[in-house]
Amino acid sequence: MRVRRGNYSRARRSPRAWRGVSDVGLALAILALLALSAARLDQVATRQVAGTAAVNDGDSLTLRGERIRLRGIDAPEHDQDCRVDDRAYDCGARARRALVELAGAGSVTCRGWERDRYGRLLAHCEAGGRDLAEAMVRAGWAVSYGDYAAAEAEAREAGRGLWAGDFDRPRNWREGRRNLQEPPHDWLGRIVNFLRQLVYGTGSV
Question: Model-level pTM?
Fold first, then answer.
């Protein structure tokens, strides 16, 4: 069977030509990703906010119009009940009061760059020279959520706050009600938040 030279040559060049098209497509995709990253870099810059804070619940507050989630901890939800001496009590409200007392020690300063799925700034906050998140965990009114494991162990050993009785970890309590979850504030959660901000910006998703 005779094969025409021209057709045979084109057939041999075809895989190479396709590779060339693939390389161009990959290069364009990388350029598009770089352009998107450059456009979003301002979204992941570290922000600092200071002033008088309004406390929303045991792990979040509002400061100069900025909604802030204390990074590394998780506190009971506002309608969550816990138990001590076989009696139920509103541990969400109690955790909020604890943060109100801590935040009232002076001007609150918060620093952070991550955003959670609700668009809140994940930040480390201080008032009166104290780390608010660490103080909440050490007092037993919040639990570790990627940080402050040593403070949680101390509070549990001393039976402080939530540890004086029985309670569901806030994450487990939310899961039972099919609420949206955010990743723990560990290294993996940091990567997830970074990628989310590059793609979606600072708004909630």
Answer: 0.71
Structural domain includes residue 161: yes
Q: Which residues pair with 66 in a beta bridge?
A: 63
Domain-embedded: residue 87: yes
177 is catalytic: no
Q: Please say if 154 is a catalytic residue.
A: no
Q: Is the pLDDT of residue 102 over 70?
A: yes
Domain that holds residue 12: 5-42
From the list 120, 126, 134, 196, the catalytic residue is 120
* Planar angle of CA 166, 123, 96, nearest 5 degrees: 35
Q: How many CB atoms lie within 10 A of CB 68?
A: 25
Q: Is 120 assigned a catalytic role?
A: yes
pLDDT tens-place string over residues 3-50: 455 554 444 555 565 566 666 667 666 655 544 444 444 455 788 999
Which residue in 71, 77, 115, 134 is the catalytic one? 77
